[in-house]
Design a protein that fits this description.
The protein is α/β, with parallel strands linked by helices. The chain has a single domain, classed as Rossmann fold (3-Layer(aba) Sandwich). 37% of the residues lie in helices and 17% in strands. The protein has an eight-stranded mixed sheet, sandwiched between helices. It starts with a strand and ends in a 15-residue tail after the last helix. 42% of the residues are buried. It binds NADP nicotinamide-adenine-dinucleotide phosphate.
Length: 206
């Protein structure tokens, strides 16, 4: 069984931890492990560096603006799969801070050049993850992008095991399109009032 370490115990990190814990060893990394530990049963909670060290797969579930600082704490992650869930959002969440000619995914790959970065789950809202944890029957697609075929396949399986449809969109540069899609989801959910329990599904026409 693989160990999946999630860096950051916020809305996304906490839900992914609970979701993956049914099928994998999960370690949650937190800046304040003692405080965070009291909120989770059956999940190991430790600091960022120890969580990254224990993992086969690391999930970055932190603000994009914090990635460079956190890289100094967790090291190179050489040879590990690194799932990048971040979206480069403005403080009010209603626009992207980078895009079109680059992406947060590519910046994360540049920060961790020896890791196999896979953009994934960034288009899935935290409320949808919470529904997945509570056994929702119909879940949206997880769209992934990364340069390493093996890591992409590993993350696709992880998403499928958690009940999502999963699609490999190609190299990490396709994060340039996945991050705007995430922002579009935020606009629909909160700008247009559809609420957070919505998501994008990629499917053939029947
Ligand atoms: N919310 C969504 O629906 C959603 C959907 C897709 C993608 N995302 C992306 O996923 C990432 C996490 O989002 P989230 O909604 O989980 O955010 P959040 O609830 O604010 O949690 C972020 C976590 O990151 C850690 N962190 C480290 N340095 C931090 C700092 N300086 N300020 C704040 N938190 C810091 C904290 O965990 P510890 O205290 O445990 O260290 C915090 O709980 C973001 O990049 C976001 O754009 C979010």
């Amino acid at each position: 069984m693989k160990t999946i370490s999630i860096i950051g115990s916020g809305n996304i990190g906490s839900n992914l931890a609970r979701l993956f814990a049914s099928t994998h060893n999960v370690v949650l990394g937190s800046r304040n492990p003692e405080q965070t530990r009291s909120k989770f049963t059956g999940i190991t909670v430790t600091d960022y560096a120890q969580a990254a060290k224990l993992a086969n797969i690391v999930v970055l579930a932190v603000p994009f603006s914090e990635v460079t600082a956190i890289a100094a704490t967790i090291g190179s992650l050489a040879g590990k799969t690194l799932i990048d869930v971040t979206n480069p959002l403005t403080p009010d969440f209603m626009a992207l801070t980078v895009g079109h000619t680059t992406s947060a995914g590519e910046a994360v790959q540049a920060t961790f050049p020896q890791a196999h970065v896979v953009k994934a789950f960034n288009t899935v809202l935290a409320q949808v993850l919470a529904k997945a944890v509570s056994g929702a029957k119909s879940l949206p697609s997880v769209l992934i992008a990364g340069n390493h075929a093996g890591a992409n396949a590993e993350v696709m399986q992880l998403a499928k095991d958690a009940g999502f449809g999963a699609f490999d969109t190609g190299p990490i540069s396709n994060a340039r399109y996945l991050e705007p899609l995430a922002e579009l989801g935020i606009q629909l959910a909160y700008g247009k009032g559809h609420g957070g329990e919505v998501g994008f599904t990629f499917a053939p026409v029947a």
